[in-house]
Structures are given as structure tokens and as C-alpha cells.
Amino acid sequence: MILFYVFVVLALVSGAMVIRAKNPVHSVLFLILVFCNTSGLLVLLGLDFFAMIFLVVYVGAIAVLFLFVVMMLHIRIEEIHENVLRYLPVGGIIGLIFLLEIFLMVDNDYIPILPTKLSATYLTYTVYAGKIHSWTNLETLGNLLYTTYFFLFLVSSLILLVALIGAIVLTMHKTTKVKRQDVFIQNAIDFQNTIKKVR
Amino acid sequence: MFEHDFLALFPEIFLINATIILLIYGVVFSTSKKYDYPPLVRNVGWLGLLSVLITILLVAVGSPLAVANLVYNNLIIDNFTYFCQIFLLLSTASTMVMCLDYFKQESLNAFESIVLILLSTCSMLFMISAYDLIAMYLAIELQSLCFYVIAASKRDSEFSTEAGLKYFILGAFSSGILLFGCSMIYGFTGVTNFEELAKIFTGYEITLFGAQSSGIFMGILFIAVGFLFKITAVPFHMWAPDVYEGSPTIVTAFFSIAPKISILANMLRVFIYSFYDPTWQQLFFFCSIASMILGALAAMAQNKVKRLLAYSSIGHVGYLLIGFSCGTIEGIQSLLIGIFIYVLMTVNVFAIVLALRQNRFKYIADLGALAKTNPILAITLSITMFSYAGIPPLAGFCSKFYLFFAALGCGAYLLALIGVVTSVISCFYYIRFVKIMYFDTPKTWVLYKPMDREKSLLLAITVFFITFFFLYPSPLFLVTHQMALCLCL
Questions:
Q1: What DSSP letter does each residue of B174-187 carry, written as one string?
Q2: Residue B122 and residue A158: Cβ atoms within 8 Å?
Q3: What is the DSSP string of B280-305?
Q4: Phi and psi dihedrals of B368, rounded to 5?
């Protein structure tokens, strides 16, 4: 329980810091912290696979992409001094609507099982607790993915192969005019002689 | 599981393996200093053609399993998929025959595009035999990913890059819409398998305002929109002319031939087999009318060949959707006949477009006095154009005749009427080709290079078929009837 509060507080604080941080690089780093804490929360909920995927996808790919973009864009820190309160009404309304929607959704039954009305007297109890055969998410997913859905798994691997080929085809130039980095020459450069001060 | 499934999937497995071996071969040898960086396009092209032909053979010889659900109900094979796959592979093979010479003339040394064409062919095979929403979506995604890359494959041309980017962005939207529809269907029914969906939807009336779930209605609507996007039916056709014009001509040929077969086959499976219901019929009805009208009117203003062919393919999609929106066995049969003849005519036209080149055959006016310089080619092109327009003894007339007949048979008189009117209008721009070839005297006379032998064979076969189809059409009718029965029973 203590762990839960630690994760929640850290996630909320760093979520606020994402918005408040002056330096965009810092705010991306805080975003990564938010993701890490949220995946901790997911582990506490028993969703181990989700936690893993969350880390891999969001931290491993998306946040790093953001970091690259932020570094490339080269934003001056001094230029960002806007009034935060300007965005408060719009953001607040959107946030309130979101909260309301969540409260509407919680405890709702989306799909009625049958359109006809059943009287409850027919129903008898089944003790499901005795029938539970406990598997973790990872085991279940592995079992399904490599047996029942192996075809889909293979087709998705082909999709990744096409993405790979496509990226190479569209970006690699085979002509001689292209400037290319030769790793050996790059490593063999003498650092003393590369930059000189001209008087 | 293993002995049956792998036996039945042997053609697909062979094609994937051959593609990957070709890829490795190309990568290893095109970067080898020892052989002085050879351009492998022609080499890989011939090998790819060979592997497609072997795949046709493997499919055609057939496994001992005629009807089966494969890999845990993810795929199905029956008569419908059997003939569709053979037909698809034949059309891919004809595209590859056309591209052998093209890459050499354009000096486009990208053997990867042949590998990508092979991979997309493979995905289209899966798409034809898909029997599950997830398998269907993955196959469509694999196909479109290959297409985005080969649309942009001519990197030094701005048109090609633009076409690739445009196709990518719009295609991503349509895939998203399709996936959203699939997830709605899954959310409201709990199944993704086509057979189970068909069982759920028998006798289940999907109405928007009725007591039943509107989520299913929305799901079907979204899936239909996604599909219509992919086959360039009218409200969702915006990308087609630009993409068709911008991509390299061989890629345009591939785009307007192969995916039409696979996506229509998949649509038939989804809508006729699984969601058989009058609600989507109105949507296809509307799209069919709109595509026919736009295909006829917008093509008149074009003076570039590829753009005109793009609009003509939009119009033909409209005619094919007539058969689709009937929903009867005759409708499906006429659709299948229609797509078969459409593909043959399109192969023919693109072979001619690729054969005519001084620098590039881009504008229609470049055809001037072709009847003097190359009379045989002129006759071929005019036969195909007459067939596109639907002049009686040719094959194009038969396909249109059966489509309109099916529309009349199910009481959709409006569809048949608009179809006849628009095909009369579209006669104008098809016959304009003939007029330019025979009666116009150009300012500068152009002589075209002689075409290669592969293309001439292709032209001869397709023209022979288009001209003499009316003498002996019964095999095609029997085959398509069997395919239609396979879906409906």
C-alpha cells in the first residue's frame, strides 16, 4: 500500500513538472519518470505484461524520439515565458469533461448479455473459485501467441520486415556523391589537429 | 494440424521463402566489390517471375484439401479462394513481365521493388483467404505498407515522392478507420471469426434506430468505408489520381491491377458471407452511382494518360460495385466476370503505355498518328479502348452487360440506367484515343522504340482474349458461378 502511494505521488508530481519545467529536455525526462511510475502501478495491479510493454514502447521508443526532436529543434530556454493561466480555462474544461466521462464509464455494463429479460430465479450458483487455474499474463499471452495465433505472429513479423526494407530503400543512396562516414577514418583522426585557432 | 495446414499453405510458404532468398541474394551481391556492384534488377526480376509462376503451379495443382479452415480458423481455402489466387498470381506475373524491360530503360536499379512486389503478392494471397478480422487486417496492412514504399521508389522524382507520401498518409487514415470498425465489431459481438460473425448476423437485423445495437452498425459502416477507400470508390477516391500519376508507370500498373482483385475478394467474403444485411447495401449503392458518374465526367478533362486511366479505373470500380450492391448470386457472378475482364484490359493498356516510349509517353496527344508509325499497336490500342467503352462484340461489353443484367434482375433499375448513361458518356474519351491515333496529324512526328518480346506476347494474349471472348465465354461463366455459389451457400 505504501508502494502504491509512493508511485501515485511521484507520478502526479512529475506529471505536473512535465508542464511546469522551463527546459523542454527536463520536461521530457519528467515524462519518462511518469511512465516509469505508471508501469510500477500496473505491476501492482497485476498487469505485468502491460507494465513491460509500457516501458518498452513509451520509454524506449516514444520518449527517446521526443528527446531527439527536442534536441534537434534547439529551443531557447529564455524564450519560453508565457502566462500559464491563459490556458487554464480551456484545459480545465477539457479535464473536467474527461473526468465526467470516466465517472460515467465506471461501473457501466456496455454489452447486455441477452436482449431478453431473464428472471433471476432460474440462475444457480457455480463456485468459480474452485475452477480457477491461475496463469500470469505472460504465460497466457505466450501460450496463445505461439500456438493459436502463430499465423498472425508470423504475418506481423513480415510487416516488420517490410518496414525495414522500406526504410532502407527510401533512405539509402548508392551513388558516389553521398557523404558517408567511414568509421575507421573517423576513429583514427587525431583530435589535436582537427580544430585549430586562427589568429 | 501440421500435415494439413502446411500442405495447404505450401504455395504461400514457398513464395515467402523465395522472396526472402531473393532479398538476401540481392543484398549480398549488389554490395559485393568483387563483382563490381552489379545491377541485379533484371536478374531478380526474372527469378521473381519464375517464383510467381511456380507458385501458380503449386496453387493450380492444388493440395488434396479442397475446402478447409487453416491455422486455427484464421484462413480458409475453398473454390473461391482457389480461383481468386490463381487469377491474382497471373495478374502479378503479367505485371512482372512488363517491369523486366522497364527498369532497364529507366535505369532504375532497385531490385528491392521487385522483392516488395513479391511480398505484397504474398499478402494479397493471405487477404483472399483471410477468415478472421485480425488476419484480414494484418494482410491489408502488409499489402499497403509494401505499396507505400514502391509508390515512392523512384526517389529522384518529386512526383513519385509526393505520391508515396500522399498514399502513406491517406492509407494510414483508411487503415485506422478499418481497424476501428473491426474493434467495434469485436467489442459488440465478442468474436472476430467470419464464420461466427455469420452465425451471429443470420436473422439479426442491424438497424441504426432500432432496438438492436448501433455499435455493430457503426462497425460495419467503418469497415465498409475502409474498404471503399482501398478500392478508390468515389467519396474516398481523392488520392487515386495523384498517386497513380506520380508513381512510376509500372507501379501504377500494379496498383490498378492486383489489389483490385484481392480487396474485392476480401470484401465479398466479409460483406456477402459474414455481414449479409441490407443496411450496407445502400452505402454501396450510393458509392457505385457516384463512382460511375465521376469516372465518366472527370476523365473527360484529363490530358495525361495515367490520370485518365486512374479515372477510368474509378469508373470501372463503380461498375463492379453494381454487382456488389445487388447482393445476389448473379450480382457476385457478374462482379467476378467484370473484374476478370477489367484486369485483362488494364494489363493490355499498361503494356501499351509502357511500350510506347521515346522519352516518356505522358500526354494523350503524344499518340498522334500512331496509326501511321505503328499500325499494329494502334489497332491493339483501339480494340482495347473500344472494349473499355463497351462496344458490342468485345469483352468489355460482356462484362458491362452482365453487370447491368444483374442490376435489373434484383430490381435496381436506377443503377442499370445510370450505368448505361455513364458508359455512353465515357465512350467519348475512350474513342478520343482512336481519333487521335488515326485522324490527327501531329506537329512533330515521333518514332517509338520497338518493344521487347515479353510485352508483345502479353499484348497478343490479352488482345486475343478481348476480341474473341464472345465466341466461347462458358468456361468463365462456369468458374465464376462456382465461386459465387461457394460464397453464398
A1: HHHHHHHHHHHHHH
A2: yes
A3: HHHHHHHHHHHHHHHHHHHGGG--BH
A4: -45, 130
- The C-alpha atoms of residue B447 and residue B375 are separated, in whole angstroms, by 12
Domain coordinates of chain A in residue numbers?
Answer: 1-76, 136-173
Q: How far apart are the first and last CA of chain A?
A: 67
Separation of alpha carbons B259 and B143, rounded Å: 8
B264 occurs within a structural domain? no
Q: What is the least distance, in Å, from the CA of A117 to any CA of chain B? A: 14
Measured CA to CA, the distance from residue B304 to residue B361 in angstroms comes to: 9
Q: Which of B267, B161, B273, B169 is nearest to B223 (CA)?
A: B267
Range of the domain at B482: 277-281+292-489
Residues A30 and A21 sit within 8 Å (Cβ to Cβ): yes
Evaluate whether residue B165 is within a structural domain: no
Q: Give the cell for residue B327.
A: 447482393
- Between B112, B139, B146, which is nearest A155 by CB? B139
Multiple choice CATH, A1-76, 1.20.120.1200, 3.30.1130.10, 3.40.50.150, 3.30.457.10: 1.20.120.1200
Residue B482, in any domain of the structure? yes
From residue A33, how far is each of A42, A44, A47 by CA, in Å?
14, 17, 19
| C-alpha R_g of chain B | 22
Residue B458 scores a pLDDT above 60: yes
| Inter-chain residue contact A163 with B145, CB threshold 8 Å | yes
Interface of B with A in 423-462 (CB under 8 A): none
Residues B247, B269: Cα–Cα separation, whole Å? 30
Q: At what angle do helices B111-128 and B133-151 cross, to 10 degrees?
A: 160
Nearest CA to CA, how far is A162 from chain B (Å)?
Answer: 6
- Residue B47 and residue B44: Cα distance in Å, rounded? 5
Q: Is residue B5 part of a domain?
A: no
Share of chain A above pLDDT 90, in %: 23
| Greater pLDDT, A133 or B415 | B415
Share above pLDDT 70 across residues of chain B, in percent, rounded to a whole number: 95
Give the mean pLDDT of A37-52.
89
pLDDT in tens, B156-212: 888 889 999 999 999 999 999 999 999 999 988 888 999 888 888 876 665 554 446
Q: What is the ipTM of this complex?
A: 0.90
B170/chain A closest Cα distance in angstroms:
17
C-alpha cell at B173: 487514415
User: Minimal Cα distance from A163: which residue of B?
Assistant: B145
Per-residue pLDDT, averaged over B364-380, amounts to 82
Cell triple for B260: 483490385
Mention every residue, 6+ apart, whose C-beta is less than 8 A from residue B426: B295, B296, B299, B312, B315, B388, B389
* pLDDT at site A179: 67
CA distance B49 to B55: 10
Instruction: Tally the domains of chain B.
Output: 1
Distance from the Cα of B112 to chain A's closest Cα (Å) equals: 7
Of B142, B148, B164, the CB nearest to A158: B142
What is the reported pTM?
Answer: 0.85
Q: Look at residue B211 in the predicted model and tell me its pLDDT.
A: 47
Average pLDDT of span B320-324: 92
Q: What is the DSSP letter of B68?
A: E
Q: How many CB atoms lie within 10 A of CB A156?
A: 16
Predicted local distance difference test score (pLDDT) of residue B81: 92
Instruction: Report pLDDT digits (tens) over A103-145.
Output: 887 766 665 555 555 555 556 677 777 777 778 888 888 888 8
Nearest to B142 among A162, A168, A174 (CB): A162
Three-class SS string for A20-75?
Answer: HCCCHHHHHHHHHHHHHHHHHHHHHCCCHHHHHHHHHHHHHHHHHHHHHHHHHHCC
